[in-house]
Write a structure and sequence with these properties.
This protein is mainly α. Helix 2 packs across helix 6.
């Protein structure tokens, strides 16, 4: 548990370097991370209301380490997604403020110096609310399927000793569910398939 807390704090500390205001059109991966952010906030709140802090921390930790850091930032590494990352980080800081008051406020001050947030302290902000309209369960499930395909695809590349730098001519995927064009584009890009 201590190791995971260290990882979480390290990731949010590094996220401040990816923040900014530049807005771009919302793409499928942006809609997904916003949906995950709101789902996580909802579950976090439900667990806090039941005094189940360990479950609340599990929710936010999984979001930070898996959804935001491993998946979203990896998927969008060639694009400027600073406004989406900022939206996620601001929400995370507000949720973690009562649990980790000093580091969250230190990061907040950094965002304030960049004119990204206005409030003098994270502790003077309103408790974050989730937006039910931004939660898209089917999109979240679709991304779970994408993640599984990527995991298998990367393992196959590893097995064949073909580094990710080398583009593949093609990759075959079989699924019992329909795969959207947007999902196929993400898979092709992440697995470096022509």
């Amino acid at each position: 548990a201590k190791k995971e807390i260290g990882k979480v704090l390290n990731v949010i500390w590094n996220l401040k370097n990816l923040t900014g205001r530049s807005k771009s059109n919302l793409e499928i991966e942006d809609k997904w991370i916003i949906s995950k952010l709101n789902s996580m906030t909802k579950k976090f709140q439900e667990n806090i209301d039941k005094f189940e802090t360990h479950n609340a921390m599990r929710e936010i930790s999984s979001f930070i380490l898996n959804d935001l850091s491993r998946t979203y930032i990896q998927m969008t590494r060639d694009k400027d997604k600073s406004s989406i990352i900022t939206q996620c980080l601001v929400q995370i800081l507000k949720l973690l403020a009562p649990i980790s008051p000093f580091i969250t406020d230190s990061i907040w001050q950094d965002l304030r110096n960049k004119n990204i947030v206005k409030e003098e302290s994270v502790h003077l902000t309103n408790w974050p609310a989730y937006n039910e309209e931004d939660i898209n369960q089917s999109l979240e499930q679709e991304f779970e399927a994408i993640a599984k395909v990527l995991e298998i695809g990367l393992a196959e590349r590893d097995k064949a000793k073909v580094g990710l730098r080398w583009p593949l001519g093609k990759a075959s995927i079989s699924s019992d569910k329909k795969i959207t064009k947007e999902s196929l584009d993400i898979i092709a890009k992440q697995l470096n398939v022509k």
